[in-house]
C-alpha cells in the first residue's frame, strides 16, 4: 500500500514515519525545499524523542521518501493525507488556505481513485471544502476520476508522539462511503491486530471529536489552576486536593496538575477555533471563554508572585529561568508561558537569564536579546535574585541544592510546576513558592 502525506511538520512527519515503520510505502511532500533536503539526509526539523531514529531506519529500508513535487508524489497512491498547518486567523478561526491549496493540487494531478484525508486539525465542514476543491480541479480537467474524503484527526502528545501513534488510545476516522471505510480499515489493520480501537463515524463528528477532546483537556487544566489559586488563599494544598479528586474514577488523575497555563500548537489554537465556530453559528461557548481567560491570567501568576515578593521593585533584578519550551520533551515554543513572562520581566527592567535542554534556538527566534541564554542550568543561576522553574524537564527534578545556594544571590525559588521538593528546599534554607500551596 502506498500513501502520500502532504506537510512535514509535527503531525505530517510523525504520521509518515510511523506508517513507514509498520511497512507502508510513504511519500512525504512539502513545499519547503530546505526541509526536504534535510529530511533526505535524515535530519528532522523538529525535536521529538525517537523520531529521528525511526526516520533514518525507514529511509534505509526504503519505505519513506521525500519530495517537493506534488505531481509526482500523488501518482499511484491510495490515500493522500493533508497534514499542513492551520494557524489561527486574527479572529481566532482556523486558517484553511493551505489545506484547500493542497486539495486543489491533489485534484489537479491525481491519476487514479484515492481517499483524501484531512489529518490537520480542522473545523467541522472542512472536509466538504476539501471535496469541493478537489472536484473543481477535476471538472477543470474534464476528468471523470472519482475520490472520497475522510477525516482522521490526530491525538498526539508532543514528547510522546511516536508511542501515541504506534500504540494509540483510539483511532478516529470519519467517512461517508463504504469504499473509503474499507481502505482506511486496511491502512490501520496492523493497529487493529494489536487491539487498538478503530472508531468509524460520520465526517462532521470526527472533525468535532478532535476539537472537543482538546477543549476538554484545556478545561481540566484551567479548572485546576483556578482551584490552585483558591487553595493558596484558603491555606489548602492543591497537590493533596488533586490526589483526592483524581482518585474518583469519574474524574481520574490526568490533566489535573496545576501550573502556569497551557501552551503549544494545539490547545490555544483549538480552543480559539471552537469558540469562533460557536459564534459563527450563534452559540456562545461560555465555559471555553472562561477556560481561555483563566489560562491567559495563569501565565502571569509567577510574575505577580515575584513582584509581590519584591514589593513591586523589580528594576535591576536578575531573574533565572529553568525551562522555556511550553512542555518537556519538545523544542516547541508556540504559546509558551515563558514568552509572556519574559516580556513582563523585560518591561519591568529585569535582567533575565534562561536555560532549556532543547528549545534554546527556537527561543532565540522568538525572544531575541530580551534574555541571556545559558549553557547549562547552573550557569543561569549565577548572581540571580531568584529562580523560576517554568518547564518540568527531568533534569530539573533533583538539582544540587548546595551548588544552587552558592550561585544564587538569594536562595529564592518560584516553582511553576510544583516538581521540586518543597520540604527539602526549606530545610536547606531556601524560600520556596509553588502553585496552589503554602
Structure commentary:
The longest helix has 32 residues, at 203-234. This protein has helices at residues 10-21, 33-40, 51-60, 70-73, 97-109, 126-140, 161-166, 178-187, 189-193, 203-234, 238-246, 267-280, 286-298, 301-309, 337-347, 360-367, 401-407, 422-427, and strands at 2-6, 25-29, 64-67, 79-82, 114-118, 147-151, 171-174, 198-201, 318-322, 351-355, 372-373, 386-389, 412-415, 431-433. The radius of gyration is 24 Å and the shape is elongated. It folds into three domains: 2-200, Rossmann fold, CATH 3.40.50; 211-297, N-(1-d-carboxylethyl)-l-norvaline Dehydrogenase, domain 2 (Orthogonal Bundle), CATH 1.10.1040.10; 299-433, NAD(P)-binding Rossmann-like Domain (Rossmann fold), CATH 3.40.50. The strands form three sheets. The protein has a six-stranded parallel sheet with strand order 3-2-1-4-5-6, sandwiched between helices. Strands 11-10-9-12-13-14 form a six-stranded parallel sheet. The chain is 44% helix and 13% strand. Helix 17 (401-407) links the parallel strand 12 (386-389) and strand 13. It is of the alpha/beta class.
Amino acid at each position: 500500500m502506498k500513501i502520500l502525506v502532504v506537510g512535514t511538520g509535527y503531525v505530517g512527519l510523525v504520521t509518515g514515519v510511523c506508517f513507514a515503520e509498520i511497512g507502508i510505502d510513504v511519500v512525504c511532500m512539502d513545499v519547503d525545499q530546505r526541509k526536504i533536503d534535510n529530511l533526505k539526509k535524515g535530519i528532522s526539523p523538529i525535536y521529538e524523542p525517537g523520531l529521528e531514529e525511526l526516520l533514518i531506519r525507514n529511509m534505509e529500508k526504503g519505505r519513506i521518501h521525500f519530495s517537493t513535487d506534488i505531481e509526482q508524489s500523488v501518482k499511484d497512491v491510495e490515500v493522500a493525507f493533508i497534514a499542513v498547518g492551520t494557524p489561527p486567523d486574527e479572529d481566532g478561526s482556523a486558517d484553511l488556505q493551505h489545506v484547500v491549496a493542497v486539495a486543489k493540487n491533489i485534484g489537479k494531478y491525481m491519476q487514479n481513485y484515492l481517499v483524501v484525508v484531512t489529518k490537520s486539525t480542522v473545523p467541522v465542514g472542512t472536509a466538504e471544502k476539501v471535496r469541493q476543491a478537489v472536484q473543481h480541479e477535476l471538472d477543470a480537467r474534464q476528468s471523470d476520476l472519482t475520490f472520497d474524503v475522510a477525516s482522521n484527526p490526530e491525538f498526539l502528545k508532543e514528547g510522546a508522539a511516536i508511542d501515541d501513534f504506534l500504540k494509540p488510545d483510539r483511532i478516529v476516522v470519519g467517512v461517508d462511503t463504504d469504499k473509503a471505510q474499507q481502505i482506511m480499515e486496511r491502512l490501520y489493520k496492523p493497529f487493529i491486530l494489536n487491539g487498538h480501537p478503530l472508531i468509524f463515524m460520520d465526517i462532521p463528528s470526527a472533525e468535532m471529536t478532535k476539537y472537543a477532546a482538546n477543549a476538554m483537556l484545556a478545561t481540566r487544566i484551567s479548572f485546576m489552576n483556578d482551584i490552585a489559586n483558591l487553595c493558596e488563599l484558603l491555606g489548602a494544598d492543591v497537590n493533596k486536593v488533586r490526589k483526592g479528586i483524581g482518585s474518583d474514577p469519574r474524574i481520574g488523575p490526568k490533566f489535573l496538575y496545576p501550573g502556569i497555563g497551557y501552551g503549544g500548537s494545539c490547545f490555544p489554537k483549538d480552543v480559539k477555533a471552537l469558540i469562533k465556530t460557536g459564534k459563527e453559528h450563534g452559540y456562545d461557548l461560555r465555559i471555553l471563554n472562561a477556560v481561555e481567560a483563566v489560562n491567559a491570567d495563569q501565565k502571569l501568576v509567577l510574575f505577580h508572585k515575584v513582584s509581590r515578593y519584591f514589593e513591586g521593585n523589580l528594576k535591576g533584578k536578575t531573574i533565572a529561568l529553568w525551562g522555556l519550551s511550553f512542555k518537556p520533551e519538545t523544542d516547541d515554543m508556540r504559546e509558551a508561558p515563558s514568552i509572556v513572562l519574559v516580556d513582563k520581566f523585560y518591561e519591568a527592567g529585569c535582567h533575565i537569564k534562561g536555560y532549556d535542554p532543547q528549545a534554546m534556538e527556537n527561543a532565540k527566534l522568538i525572544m531575541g536579546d530580551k534574555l541571556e541564554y545559558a549553557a547549562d542550568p547552573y550557569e543561569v543561576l549565577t548572581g540571580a535574585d531568584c529562580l523560576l522553574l517554568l518547564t518540568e524537564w527531568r533534569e530539573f527534578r533533583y538539582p544540587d541544592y548546595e551548588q544552587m545556594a552558592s550561585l544564587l544571590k538569594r536562595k529564592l525559588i518560584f516553582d511553576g510546576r510544583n516538581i521540586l521538593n518543597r520540604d527539602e528546599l526549606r530545610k536547606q534554607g531556601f524560600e520556596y513558592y509553588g502553585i496552589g500551596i503554602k
